[in-house]
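User: Working on a comparison across species. This one is DUF1501 domain-containing protein from Urbifossiella limnaea. Can you predict its structure so I can line it up against the others?
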Amino acid sequence: MTTHPSRRAVLRVGGAGLLGLGYPQLHEAAASPSAARRATAKAVIFLHQWGGPGQHETFDPKPTAPDNVRGWFGATQTRLPGVIFGERIPRIAALADKFTVVRCLQHGMKNHNSAGYYSLTGVAPPTDDQRLRDTLELFPAYGSIVDRLAPAPRGVATFVSFPHVIADGSVTPGQHASFLGKAHNPLFVNQDPNRADFRLPELTLPDTLPVERLENRRDILRLIDEQSDLLETSLVARGLDETYQKAVAMLTSPRFKQAFDLSKEPQAVRDRYGRTTYGQSCLLARRAVEAGAKFVNVYYARSIGGFGQGWDYHGFRGEDTVGRLNELLPIADQTLPALLTDLEERGMLNDVMVVWVGEFGRTPRISSNGGRDHWPQCYSALIAGGGAKRGFVYGASDRLGAYPTLGQARPEDLAATMFAALGLDPEAEVRDKLNRPLPIARGKPIAEVFA
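Assistant: Here's the predicted structure for DUF1501 domain-containing protein from Urbifossiella limnaea:
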């Protein structure tokens, strides 16, 4: 029979670290008014569209623009008078009265790794360089900030991410805790939730290992080494040398483990999300926040380039741009409405903010290669639930979808908006390796987004 550590044993292993905030966190929390800020959301699901979806094909079509701007598809009317979306996302359009669309996001990073880091942290990289490397000097992921300042109860991962580590050549920065330390890394599950054998790896105790041995750090590390699947699928487990007590509590929590058992979902619900990696990942995100997670990153694709691998539709190397979009757009159009509808039906949408965004948009004009290139000067995002207005469009672009003409928003403002929704003061500070105080967001919440 498999034996799990008792709650008392887990608490003994964890010590004060499992009982609440450590001293540095107490210092940071006390140094800011974040505790007094009214939260409008209990959790955020951050749907990162790796590669950069085009504004023309999604939330800001230009049907009256010239052919080389208008693109391959028409537009579809939403439930909002005068508001149109791309022709291939009619289900999303039918739910436009349930969310906010931001049509004026902009920044200056044209490379995937630098723009991706900006999108995942809200902090501009030191340089716009595709060779930007993941280092501990760069800023932490949003979820790591939340774990530092407002962690979930013990036994629950504050920050969860899946099912890929995204990269464009090298690993894209901004996916982990960086200088905050491994204690605040995500519970990262590098498995496909659409696979029949998908599961959260468990920390199990052999019959010959008594619970009391969990008090011995070396025995825990040896146990983890023997169960190598943990090391392959969980950044929490990889960081066990610093946070083994947190990992033990989390990976032996029945409630949280059950959230990763998709077999408990009705087949009709799984089918509604779509039997794709992305579809089942979004279903898993709903289950994770239902179990108490506070920030969930879902990455649409592992890499860019190659058919079906992401939203990077340059149209070169003989790729069929229309064929790629005919795969990407229907998946988005099935999964996002399923998630929003599911949250609404469960009475969760008011408490969970869903953010759908890529690292940039696509060029207004179709290139000579038959696709659209990178375009950070104007792109769109969707924000639903967690205090966001319903049936609202913030900002506008010019007739070509090239530059904002109304409204102003940058990744740092989107970061501040999410932190504010969770009740964190965007001006609250964390400290880097040199003990320098740094604000968790460099922008301001987009006030117009909140109801």
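For your comparison, note: The radius of gyration is 22 Å.

User: Helpful, thanks.
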